[in-house]
Amino acid sequence: MDKRWFTAATTFGAAAVVFSAAALAQTPTPGATVTPGATTSPAGTASATVAITGTSVATGTSVVTGTAVATGTVQVVPTISVPTTLYVPGGTGGFPFADPAFQQVWNRTDSLVASGQVSRTWFWGPGPNTVGLIEQYNEGVGGKRLVQYFDKSRMEINNPAGDRSQPFFVTNGLLTVELISGFMQVGNADFVKFHPACIPMSGDFGDVLAPTYFAFQGVSNTQAGDHNAPDRTGQKATETIDRDGHVGTDASKGNIAGVNFVHFETTTHHNIPKVFWDFLNSTGPVRNAQGNVVNEQLIQPWNFASGLPISEPYWAKAKIEGQVKDVMIQAYERRALTFVPTNTAGFQVEMANIGQHYFDWRYRNYGYCTSEPVVTPTAPVPAPTGTVVTGTGTPAPAGTTVTGTGTPATTGTPAPSSTATLFIATATPTSGPVITPQGTPVP
User: Fold this and answer.
1) FRET partner for 180 with CA separation of 20 to 30 A, picked from 47, 67, 89, 358?
2) 2 pLDDT more than 80
């Protein structure tokens, strides 16, 4: 299998971009999620008749008052409870940044949101969702590396002895590739088999309409196989996909502005429509290394944060803020982009809360597909007490006026600088052998 599309994790830096989470799935809380074909809610009591046909996977416990009819096998997979001393989604846990370099990356965009100087949503989130964690990385010191999770992604330091002034000192994981393929990355080009993620890429929590990451396995370039596309520059994105990965065409979507393809990525052989290309090349206010607020291209180059496209864009249905809407979704190596044309202008293109989705998949036993055997991962555990070094952001110069577009900031408290315990995540599921893809990673 030709893996020349694959971009090594060490080649990308964490850069800045603007996006909203208003229409995206939030972190699952202990409750019930039955896949596929049944609608459930987080833990609670509901009066309903629930019909389940086939093999279903339920995560957590659901209380239903009424008649429950199950045809086939119902497999209950309990969600792992991670203590709030380790993980709090939404960046409100008060966790310090695990390294000054993490805070510097966060400061570039999200410090402006936290201070109210820019009205847009978070690039990473209000603050870290976890303490510092140590995860397996074969090229790291002792085969490990320091990581920290945020709503939107995961920050990583692969080589702590590297040049901190370089944009790639802090990297940004190939989370989309892992969630779609079911192979967890444990080295530059080493992956261990885990399981694909049956977690919706878009939509409200518990949505049963939106395609899951696993649904994109048959149309994406991952360890599970390559699915290339021809150069379609000038054509329009009209393909559709459902929750289970069935694809089709809706010619009416070609009438929507911005769905024409304007860029063909020759490395991964996928097309990018204008609405996503414009977003990835947008400019806005950022805080530079000197602490000044300036207008710059938010991603330099455009693929630093998202990575390269690994699928074509597909139209799908998703329940967003309680309403069923049409949404166009495209998978990239590090993020999933969504386009909802009925959203307010300026807030139509968004990115998924993939940092939350990935943490739930890797550590909280969430997202099992009905065809996958259950292998419970080991939860993150604390390492010996130590000091986490943190950095300090620089406020904007007095009198600076900052303008920008994006979704208004949600309420949240940026993580403070303090002394804290460094925790080690010892769990790398090993339900299969380490696999080294063929081919040379793209530099």
Assistant:
1) 89
2) no
Q: How far apart are CA 335 and CA 87, in angstroms?
A: 21
Q: Is the dihedral of CA 94, 96, 101, 103 positive or negative?
A: positive
Question: Average pLDDT, stretch 151-166?
Answer: 93
φ/ψ region of 229 (left if φ > 0, alpha if ψ in -120 to 50, else beta) reads beta
Tokens for 210, please give them. Answer: 């939106």
pLDDT beyond 70 at 284: yes
Report how far residue 180's alpha carbon sits from residue 186's, in angstroms, rounded to the nearest whole number.
16
Residues 6+ apart with CB under 8 A from 401: none
Most distant CA pair in the chain, distance: 66
Return the ∠ at Cα 221 (arms to 215 and 227), rounded to 5°: 80
- E strands along 92-210, which residues? 133-136, 144-149, 154-157, 170-172, 183-185, 191-193
pLDDT of 376 higher than 80: no
In angstroms, the first-to-last Cα distance of the chain is 19
Domain positions in the chain are 9-29+85-435
Report in angstroms the alpha-carbon separations of 100 from 33, 92, 196, 206, 389: 38, 19, 33, 36, 7
User: How far is Cα of residue 22 from the mean position of the Cα atoms in its chain?
Assistant: 14
The residues near 85 (Cβ < 8 Å, ≥ 6 apart) are 131, 382
Relative to beta strand 434-435, strand 191-193 is: antiparallel
H helical segments located in 84-219: 100-114, 175-181
Strands 45-47 and 63-65: parallel
Does pTM surpass 0.70? Answer: yes
Give the tens place of pLDDT for each residue, 31-45.
Answer: 333 333 322 333 333
Which of the residue ranges 37-46, 119-128, 138-147, 213-222 would you say has the lowest mean pLDDT?
37-46
Structure tokens at 9: 């994790």
Contact between 218 and 202 under an 8 Å Cβ cutoff? The reply is no
Q: Distance between CA 442 and CA 99 in Å, rounded? A: 28
At residue 54, does pLDDT exceed 50? no
CB within 8 A of 381, min separation 6: which ones? Answer: 423, 424, 425, 426
